[in-house]
Amino acid sequence: MSERIGITVTVNGTRYEREVEPRLLLVQLIREELRLTGTHIGCDTSYCGACTILLDGEPVKSCTMLAVQADGGEVLTVEGLEKDGKLHPLQEAFSEHHGLQCGYCTPGMLMSAYYLLEQNPDPSNAEIRKGIQGNLCRCTGYKNIFAAISDAAAKMQTGS
Amino acid sequence: MHRPAYMTMDAKTSPGRQDAGQTIAGAVGSPIPHDSAHLHVSGEAIYVDDIPERQDLLHLAVGMSARPHAKIRKMDLSAVRRAPGVVAVMTAADIPGENNCGPVIADDPIFAPGLVQYVGQSVFAVAAETVDQARKAAKLATIEYEDLEAILDPRAALAAGSFVLPSETITRGDSQAALADAKHRLQGSLNVGGQDQFYLEGQIATALPAEDGDLYLYSSTQHPGEVQHLVAAAIGKLSKDVVVECRRMGGAFGGKESQPALIACIAGLMADKTGRACKLRLDRDDDMIMTGKRHDFVIDYDVGFDATGRIEGIEFMFASRCGMSADLSGAINDRTMFHCDNAYYLENVSIVSHRCKTHTVSNTAFRGFGGPQGMFGIEYVVDEIARYLGKDPLEVRKKNFYGVGERDITPYQQKIRDNIIEEIVSAVEKSADYQERRKEIRAFNKESEILRRGIALTPVKFGISFTATHLNQAGALVHVYTDGTVHLNHGGTEMGQGLFTKVAQVVAEELQIDIDRIKIMASDTSKVPNASATAASSGSDINGKAAQAAAAKIKRRLIRFAAKHFAVPKDDIEFINNRVRIGAESISFEDLIKRAWFARISLSATGFYRTPKINYDRSTFSGRPFFYYAYGAAVSEVIIDTLTGENRILRVDILHDCGESLNPAIDMGQIEGGFSQGAGWLTSEELCWNSDGELTTHAPSTYKIPTCSDLPVDFRAKMFEAGRNREPTIYRSKAVGEPPLMLSLSVFHALRDAVASVGGDRCRPQLDAPATPESVLKAVTAMQAEGGSS
Predict the structure, then answer these.
(1) Contact between chains at B37 and A142 (C-beta distance less than 8 A)
(2) Which residues form the domain of A12?
(3) Residue A160: its pLDDT value, please?
(4) pLDDT band at residue B19, thresholds of 50, 70 and 90?
(5) Are residues A102 and A66 in the same domain?
(6) Pair B297, B332: CB distance under 8 Å
(7) Which of A14, B142, B322, B704 has its CA 20 to 30 A from that of B303?
(8) Is B598 found in the same domain as B650?
(9) Closest chain A residue to B45 measured between Cα atoms?
(10) B774: closest CA among B753, B757, B751, B744?
(11) A140–B672: do the CB atoms touch at under 8 Å?
């Protein structure tokens, strides 16, 4: 066993202190240590985006980042999108607009979409395309994902 | 839990159904979201890898062959055994039962028994305390190979006479005479590539030892029953000793029909050996290397036709890369033969199908199951004819359509009774403004030197049923609890396609209760035995019927009870909107259930369904393999850059027939998603093997599935409103899993149309699939070299 390194990471608002192997991936920390299994492993190599989370507000493919690199950082996962028992408008919209089928890409897709709307509350179609181009979906053909993001953006704008 | 306001969405109202307001939530025909949508978006949906791990869990890794075809002269696993954390190592010699995970023929070893037949073949497995330890240890084997001659592609296999199964032929009429007499005749060869399923959730299984040597497995599989049978045989036990469960898969697309058996057998064997829980999750690269894909084909054709483009005689030769074993290749290649007519009447026809054995991974099911490659063949031929004659390909397509009441017998002797292809094609031709746009595109291409556009309309006719008749059966199990809520099991599996939602809608409709009173249970071999794979688009058709039968059985018991209990005639009892009208009175559903329970009425029932009317003799390839056909058509417009071959889909118009859809929103998702996946197959997804038999495209870095940037700029998919299954399927719906994939042939032919614009009149570019930018550029360059205008 290699030496362990102490890290402190805040995940979805909760502070965690852990002694981890330097080789531990951030996605392993999230899934295995913290048991937040909404973040999925798809391709292991950062292409598919199923493992996307936000680290200090920026989207990160957590399968190719080490847990120690997140030391001192704030992580947001899909489990943290819900506020006060209420789903985030994006979560509602993905559900209502059928922006999912098997659901495996959904958490990563939501995190990229969440970042997009944080940066740009009123994205054009082209901007949505750019915003989620790092996330693969094999089921939907993306059309309903676009519809979901557009609708969530509109609802968040009007506050409805 | 975020239980969904959407569950109360109104049902599609149609004559004979209850008015809105009197309708249950989640009735048949209502566009309710996927039953797990609220779990998918919250991250709470549990896939196999998310199930909390037992404390004793071991992680597995597989040692793979480095050679395509070789004898294993010596295998030294001592370093593997000594590696840190390693608890057990298994090879072929350690298997207590059968060393086989082949679904039809026992030619798929779990561990190679001294002979390897593809790069990536499983040779041994390691169990260790952590994933890293297992994967590292697996790399420490020393294997000495004695290389044998490797056959690496279908042409080489044809030349060598190397086949996994006997070649097959379907003939009708006299193709030789028709070809000799035809006014025009064309011959050619085509290549159509394979496709990796690229389910986002990779192959995975966890096996848990239980008491008395039993095993409980969580497997990401479309076919839990087969996994159960094969795992039991591998560990030298019986089906009763193994239970397999699958709540959901993160995508499957056929890739989890037979392929999960290997993963589950390894997990089961190791759990059986070590007495500890064992999990095997393949790394993505290993998954792509080790598991089968869509078959690539070489296709030769010889076609004779008249001046209008009508086909008078045709001969097809299909040769597919089956890989090292039979797997499902027999049925897949049969389906190729059954679909190389697509929507066209072929009076004098000969179809020869070779199932080539190659020293590559054994190819397997993938959405369409051989059908797409057959349809690729005939669509290419029809396009060739049109270009040769200088006609609009659509005109030649229409010229060859099956008739209604005449010219309606397929080459395999099935009479087509539900042909609506003309109606659908004409409708989408009009709504997509095909003719005007075609003219406009021709004009554009005259003026545009570098960018060229193309347009194509292609039809789809797809046969529904497993071609192996015995697989067309399904079972279900429905329990009603005393509070009036329901547990629903059936033999189908959920891979994202919405099967569980649709079957629950059927049960809600049958019992007239809101869908949120029904708990959808995981597929489980201890609940519904011997279920067929969820495949062949048949999931809703057969499981919907089986679940309906189970619910109806309980309902009949309730009616019998109520009639007696309340002394009213049976036909004066009606289930409506969570209540039961008994004569002039009405009580709640749960009230009736409580009373029935008190009166000792059984509130649990199984249901069974076998597809009627199908009857087919494989020895002569004739009869009725298909209960009915699903139809659709698509118009695609593309633009290519003739300097680079890069291309984009500009607009797509789809009209697809789902019969009376059980859930239009879910079915629309199948249409759009299927089309997109097909477009990937035909444009960007390219599998490459090197001369050592190694797959060089084994990760998404080099294997390109469509991204959101590939979504057509303008995408208009519609369901055929007048759709109604002429056969008595579940609520007259039609299967929709596979058929829409082949709508993407319109993209390929639009690309070919764009490429053809580079050549002169009547030029016929050779374009292989997938039409990657490289393939398009090659075709453009060839056109230019032929001296066409540029």
Answers:
(1) no
(2) 5-80
(3) 62
(4) very low
(5) no
(6) no
(7) B322
(8) no
(9) A38
(10) B751
(11) yes
